[in-house]
Amino acid sequence: GGSVAPSAAAGVARPSVVDWLTRGLRRLSESVVGLVRAFIFGANRAGGGAAARLGGVALRQSLTAAYGSELQLPNFFEGTFPEALQAARLDLKLAVIYLHSSSAQHSQSVCRNVLGNEFVRSILNENFVVWGGDVAQQQTQGVARMVHAR
Length: 150
Known about the structure:
By secondary structure, the protein is mostly helical. The chain is built from seven helices and two strands, in the order H-H-H-H-E-H-H-E-H. It has a two-stranded parallel sheet with strand order 1-2. The radius of gyration is 20 Å and the shape is globular.
């Protein structure tokens, strides 16, 4: 009798964990498929414009203004998200996307301790095309939707 209750409890808990994992894997696969599709065919869904072309410069200026001019950041791609994907494809590199939100709880910590870390910065600069954007910008919002960011 006593051994039935734990297995029944485990049986009840398992579907919620399985459902959670299934939903997470589905979201991840949709994001990966979307990025691969954009990488291969181009990402025309995320538009450009003059402000977007200044993406890397504008983001760098915004982050150093907010967190200090001594902040050393990775080399953000200078151009639109679709252009970054095209450059990654031509250079045979993966693209890294940094979506910044000044209102996010850990933004300052991520900028200073992760992006500002010399080792992380060198790995990113040498091996990836790094595109970054502020989620307050329309293009970045489109990219965030494409990769199912929250």
